[in-house]
Structure formats: C-alpha cells, structure tokens
Amino acid sequence: MLKFTLMQRSKMLAFPGASSKIAEVVSDGGYSKPFVVFDKGVKSLGIADRVLSALRSAGIAFEEFSGVVPDPPCDVVDSAAAACRSSGCDCVIAIGGGSSIDVAKGVSVLRFNGGGILDYADPSVPMARCPGLISVPTTAGTGSELSNGIIITDPRTGSKVPIVGDKAMSEYVILDPELTLGMPPGLTAMTGLDVFSHALEAYTTVLAGPMTDIVCEKLMQDVAEFLPRAVADGGDLEARQRMLCCASLGGWMLANCCAHVGHSLAHVIGARFHVPHGAACAYACPAMMRFIAPAAPEKVRRAGEILGARFDGSEGPAEIAEKSAEAYSRFCEGLGLQPASELGISRDAAAALAREVSEECFAGLTPRKVSEADARAMLEDVFG
Ligand SMILES: [Fe+2]
Questions:
Q1: Which CATH class is domain 185-383?
Q2: Which of 145, 195, 236, 264 is placed for a possible disulfide with 360 were both Cys, Cβ 3.0 to 4.6 Å?
C-alpha cells in the first residue's frame, strides 16, 4: 500500500461568521435534512442555537441530538446512530468540541456500516465510506474536525479506544472563531495545550516527514504566540482565529502522521484519573520530551527554542530535553495550568498504569521503542 506524503480531503470555510453559511454548506453537499449533534453546554451557551437558527431561517428541517457527554461512551454513539437512522436525516452536523465531533463521526460510521461503534476499533473490520459529516468546532483543541481519529470510551474497561476513521472524516469543516469568543481561560489553555501536543508529537513520530515538519513547526510557533493572548483576553478575535486554525491543522497533522507516547500517557491518565485531555497531554509532555530526546534531539531543541529556551550548540540530548521541558513547563505555568503535583494522584498509582501505556496504540509510533519500564519511568516523571 502506498504511504502518501500528505492528504487533505475536507472542504473548509474559515472566517469570522462562517457558521452563518451552514445552510449553504448543507445545500452544497446535496443534503436536505441534517442530524445535529451537540452537548448541553453548547446549547446552554446559545452556540448551538446560532447554528440551528441559520438552518431554520433557510427552511432546512433537522433533528437534534443533545446527549453528548465528555469522553463519550460507545452506547451514546450507538443510541445517537439509532436515532439518526430512524429520523430520515441524510447528513450529520457536529457542533462542539472533540466529544461532539467524535460522536458525530461515530454516527456517520454507523449510518453506512452495521454493528456498534466499538466493532470498528479493530482496523481489520472493513468500513464503507461515510460522506455527509459537517463539523463546526467550538473549541480550539482536538482538531477532530480534520483528523481521522474517533476516541470512544469503552465503559466495560473504562479505557479510551481510538478508532481509525479514514473513511469517516469531515466532508465539510466550518471554522468560525466567533463561536469560541469568551471561552473561559482554563478551558482555552487546556484545549490549546492539546494543539501544541498534536504539533510536537506529529513532528516527532516515526511517520513525520519534511512536508509535515514545516506545518508542525509553524503550528508550535503560532500556539506559543497566540495561546497566551487567547487565554489573557477571551475576546481577542485574531488570537481565537489563529488558535482555531492551529487546532484544525493539528488534527490534519494527526491524520497524516499521528501522535505518539505523549498521547498514550494522556489517554491512560485521562481515562483512569478523569483528567481533561488537554491537561493530561500537557502533564505528559515534559516526560515525553525527555524520553524522545536521544532519538530526536534536533526536533526537541527546535520545540524548546520556539518556547523560548536558549541553546549554545554544546548540549547533548539530556540537556536539550531538560531545557526544552523547562521552557514548556514555564509556558504552561504562564497559562495558569494547575501543576500535576496538585492533582492528588500518587506516583505509585500512576506507575501501575505502565503496561497500559506501553501497549496503547500510539506508543508504537514513538521514535524510540516504549517498554513497560520506560512507560513507568515517564509516569513517575509526571507524578514524581
Ligand atoms: Fe489530543
């Protein structure tokens, strides 16, 4: 099978007010009745209604599903898909953060494929193409709108299960920074740090290449510049727009070269200790940098430089990692991220998750092989 260098399949609108074009997007796809997926938070903030009222004004009938919850379990996707099937809808609109977009992606999968969503965690299970997904992100974080990943929780094990949905990516993406104005500083910081992790991990996976490197470096630079502005002033439209673009392009990088052990740590920590995904990525990042520096010293140094670390060229991998990790920690501190040491998670409880981390599906894309002992050392580093 050919490994293509770069793919981008989704059609995008990206400008302030873009979500007002939702009806035209539906029509452009040849669709007439959307199944609209969101959560109660997006509804209570009035964000869902801005999009729904644009559909109403255009005379487009739709069905609503407002049952999305954080870290969505498989039964939410399966029941939403059943509701979609019986509604006669011919496309799916996601309004929200990664959880809503992942549920909508799962609904799209089950519109065209049988069974339950967790059946597709096995990549050998064939998946028919799933057109008709329109994603309207309201946070600048997961980049799920441009990624091929679907993260669903298995309630039997409590684990987050990544599903590769190459055939279920968004057909359209609407990036409207006005929908993210006023997002609280804490949520802005956590979701933005997820973007940085996507850029840094995609930059350093075994699948990275010169074309994706260029995008990832620019993403890290823009997050370093614009995330502090978005956190400091929720109404800074330019910062919001740049972060929304970075988040989507980060998702695009995930679709092309994936993440690695930083996200393995984040998925396991997040599922076991209910740490929000972006924060879990941020806690994992310094330990991940220290681990990969022997295999990718130049790239870890570049990430450190972008975050303000200074190097004189004499540093070996360990010192490069230390300086870059310190710069990253300072960056997080400036954004007001609560230190991992204040979460009340013991080093031993975290270390017990080592095998799960080393066996998590992204760990194999790390530029060094991740043994159980390596994973334990990283967990102890995070919660030490
Ligand atoms: Fe992530």
A1: mainly alpha
A2: 264
- What are the residue ranges of helices labelled H in the chain? 22-28, 40-44, 47-57, 74-87, 98-112, 185-204, 210-232, 237-257, 261-273, 277-292, 297-306, 317-334, 347-351, 354-359, 372-383
Domain ranges for the chain: 11-180, 185-383
CA of 87 to the centre of ligand 1 (A): 32
Spell out the residues 6+ positions from residue 72 whose beta carbon is closer than 8 angstroms to its own.
Answer: 99, 102, 103, 106, 152, 153
**201 C-alpha to center of ligand 1: Å?**
10
pTM score over 0.90: yes
In this structure, CATH architecture of domain 11-180: 3-Layer(aba) Sandwich (3.40)
Scored b (16 or more CB within 10 A) or e, 158-182 reads ebbbbbbbebbbbbbbbbbbbbbee
> Per-residue pLDDT tens for 330-371?
999 999 999 999 999 999 999 999 999 999 999 999 999 999
Tell me whether the CATH fold assigned to 11-180 matches the one assigned to 185-383.
Answer: no
Residue with tokens 């570049």: 302
